Amino acid sequence: MLDDFLVRAALAGLGLALAAAPLGCFVSWRRMANFGDATAHAAILGVALSLALSLPVFAGTLFVALVMAVLVGALSERGLGIDTVLGVLAHGALAIGLVAITFVPGARLDLSAYLFGDILAVTKSDLAVIWGGAALVLGLLIWRWQALLTATLSPDLAHASGIDPRLESRVLTVALALTVAVAIKVVGVLLIGAMLLIPAAAARPFARTPEAMALLAAGIGGISALAGLEGALIFDTPAGPSMVCAATLIFAVTASLGAMRARR
Amino acid sequence: MKLIEAQGLRVSLGEHPVLQGVDFHVDPGEIVTIVGPNGSGKSTLLRTLIGAVKPQAGKVTRKPGLRLGYVPQKLQIDATLPLTVARFLSLPHRISRAEGRAALEEAGAGALEGRPMSGLSGGQFQRVLLARAILGKPEVLLLDEPTQGLDQPGSAAFYRQIEQIRARLGCAVVMVSHELHVVMSASDRVVCLNGHVCCQGHPETVAQAAEYRALFGTGTHGALALYRHEHTHTHDHAHERGHDHAHDHHHDHAGHGH
């Protein structure tokens, strides 16, 4: 079954969606969208590094994403003007990565694969990395769920309950870096932020609890991945962007339904 | 044994010094009220006691394993986070439906369990925060301006509820407030704060203290609570002279007596 490239692609998309969507809920609740982008964009630098040193792409991107996430996390704790700083880092990291990668012989040819993903070329070992990483992210989130939610709601309430909110931020930082490293093959660095945020945003109008939102988001992410893949085959469009298109369509529908219900 | 003891606290937020040389303690079962004008460091002191703010100098000692119940002044919940009252009560510890209901009942927020947090009025929100705080069976309940946004009968009812909760749980209560007349009568001890502890003691003693009157005026039932503190300049003296802030302040105040 895994010998079929389409089956491998579908499984890769599902694996990413299952981890990215619940994590994306936290990204949305904590207003970390720029944080996610900065980390994701930095990953292209990781690609350049991996190719130059002949390391697995997963290792290089994970390393750079982790460094970036820790750096950005430290900056956000300082507060003040963080939005601008994150924007600078997000775009700066992308540009530096794009320049760096042109110095690596041959990589220039594959550039769009790293920017937009190359899901149809996913191998069995890629699948193992994707599902392994996704399982780790989900495991982290489930393990820390109650503490993460409390810290997200209010760092002060967390402190009063004996929870260290900085530790919980670090848990999210690690989960984010893992997700970026896993997602690069599927949707590429430019659209990782989309796979985090859009399913979560689409789930919001129909969720009454955080858990319901995370589950719904995972479902919507999974459907978007499969529908996007199907659409890519039918219309001969790139798979990664097609998945994000599908998610955006679902968002448009749920947001309109939500708005209509609110008006009634 | 004291539940919480703070010694020689110095806290700055950014460049701005907020607390200097503050000593504070909480005994089991007592109701302590912290009063002081806006910007006097009341909330910061509370946040330092729960460990959310690290003091630059001095230390906070809590009884090992002390259970805290904290009711913040404000809680901004992001619009993208769906949260019902019942779900909120289960953070960070999962509780049963019956426990949640009982806590809401006791906090005077009976029928709110299924409502989204975003749809609550200010008063309802405060009561839900209180319900969550008492669910952990706290040994110390800390409330930051808990009656903000309540009318007078509303706050009177709120303080009666706090009394009842203390009677049942046997917990100590630390409150921040600027509703002097209500608060004074409901407290065992009042601490008057303005960057440093100006004076403290039994409510009646404090009400007679020159330092307190300088801050809040006399016999006006708190109507003059916006009075600027006339001793603010003593901070600068203390800076110039050096270290023993608490001592300096007390000394200065005595000297200034009106």
Automatic annotation (TrEMBL), chain A:
Q: Which residues form a coiled coil?
A: none
Q: Which ranges does the record mark as transmembrane?
A: 6-29, 41-72, 84-106, 127-145, 174-202, 214-235, 241-260
Keyword Cell membrane assigned: yes
Under Gene3D superfamilies, the record lists:
ABC transporter involved in vitamin B12 uptake, BtuC
Q: How does it sit in the membrane?
A: Multi-pass membrane protein
What function does this protein fulfil?
Answer: Involved in the high-affinity zinc uptake transport system.
What family is it from?
Answer: Belongs to the ABC-3 integral membrane protein family.
Q: What is this protein called?
A: High-affinity zinc uptake system membrane protein ZnuB
From TrEMBL, chain B:
Q: Does the record carry Cell membrane as a key word? A: yes
Query: Which biological process, per GO, is one annotated for this protein?
Result: response to zinc ion
Q: Which InterPro entries match?
A: AAA+_ATPase, ABC_transporter-like_ATP-bd, ABC_transporter-like_CS, Metal_Ion_Import_ABC, P-loop_NTPase
Pinpoint the ABC transporter domain residues: 4-219
One molecular function GO term is: ATP binding
Question: According to the UniProt record, where is the region Disordered?
Answer: 231-258
SMART domains per record:
AAA
Keyword list, A-Z: ATP-binding, Cell membrane, Ion transport, Membrane, Nucleotide-binding, Translocase, Transport, Zinc, Zinc transport
Q: What is this protein called?
A: Zinc transport system ATP-binding protein
Q: Which organism is it from?
A: Alloyangia pacifica
| Organism classification | Bacteria, Pseudomonadati, Pseudomonadota, Alphaproteobacteria, Rhodobacterales
